[in-house]
Amino acid sequence: MKALSKLHAREGLWMVNAPVPEIGPDDVLIKINKTGICGTDIHIWNWDDWAQKTVPVPMITGHEFAGEIVEIGRDVQGLELGQRCSGEGHLIGTQSRQSRAGKFHLDPATRGIGVNEQGAFAQYLRLPAFNVVPLPDEISDDIGAILDPLGNAVHTALSFDLIGEDVLITGAGPIGIMAAAVARHAGARHVVITDVNPDRLALASQVADVVPVNVTQESLQDVIPRLKMKQGFDVGMEMSGNQQALDQMVEAMTMGGRIAMLGIPPGKSPVDWSRIVFKAITIKGVYGREIFETWYKMIAMLENGLDVSRVITHRFHVDDFKAGFAAMKSGQSGKVVLDWT
Ligand code: NAD
Ligand code: ZN
């Protein structure tokens, strides 16, 4: 089968001919139709410090996918051949306290497909049946291929009550933009999204009813009175991983505000703790998706009018994967989807 592999310990990915994975009794084999390129895949492409420390070579990369089940392990129940699906790319263990309490997304033994285990940038993917998420007919393979990052957005956005709240999202990357759409769908009042990249802010406005703020030109302190907000923001979602954005968020929050942090700072990220204490701010770290509550809520919202389709700005056949990665790296794209059919 065709697969995109981290074949060498240097910049790039390589198209290889790999054996179709063999499945175990509890696995399924998925024929991949579409995959999404993630920021994580760019780290692996670039072979930065994190990738060098984390990813063994060779490794088939990729973890955002949609496809259909073509083989079913002998102990698997409840799935059928031909079922269209996406799936949770975090493979969890069952021994930890967290897993045994049903908090699968908090299992410390989590391993990621396309990072620690062979991934989805391939014509076929082996996946534990437990991780399969069937796709209803109304959800296309394109959207199926971006459910993983949409799940990050949904997990973050639904961390706190949003109904009637004023929401600040820092970072209008694909995940920040989708979180804005989710916040709107969930009933927030104002949804303000910041970035330093005008292309990203323009895309955010196409996907969701947001107030875009370019923080190189305008201060959040000016936006608050412009929107006739009496105080600062009730809920913050940090989705840039940028220190300045985090500082601006803390300043712009109301007393008793709540912040969900998804963005990953490149190193230690100092904050003004006294501001957080005196503003009585709650901070929650968000990792991955809740397994499987996030998937349930996300699919239910998509079936009920949540539309994130315009966040996909580029589509390529996998033979043109280099163009796809170049689009992702340009900073001018939303999600980039590769076609494996
Ligand atoms: P992205 O890099 O595409 O988007 C980040 C955006 O932040 C960019 O548009 C960038 O221009 C913007 N930005 C930079 N400086 C800024 C500033 N000062 N103020 C406001 N915006 C600024 O990333 P993404 O794929 O959308 O992911 C968002 C973040 O979430 C990243 O940090 C990523 O590493 C992280 N992430 C975390 C998890 C998790 O499980 N915690 C999962 C996926 C992604
Ligand atoms: Zn991803």
TrEMBL record:
InterPro entries: ADH-like_C (IPR013149), ADH-like_N (IPR013154), ADH_Zn_CS (IPR002328), ER (IPR020843), GroES-like_sf (IPR011032), NAD(P)-bd_dom_sf (IPR036291), Zn_alcohol_dh (IPR050129). Its cofactor is Zn(2+). It comes from the Bacteria. Residues 12-338 form the Enoyl reductase (ER) domain. Keywords: Metal-binding, Oxidoreductase, Zinc. SMART domains: PKS_ER. One of its GO terms (molecular function) is zinc ion binding. Its EC number is 1.1.1.103. The keyword Metal-binding applies. Belongs to the zinc-containing alcohol dehydrogenase family. This is L-threonine 3-dehydrogenase. It comes from Pseudosulfitobacter pseudonitzschiae. The gene is tdh.
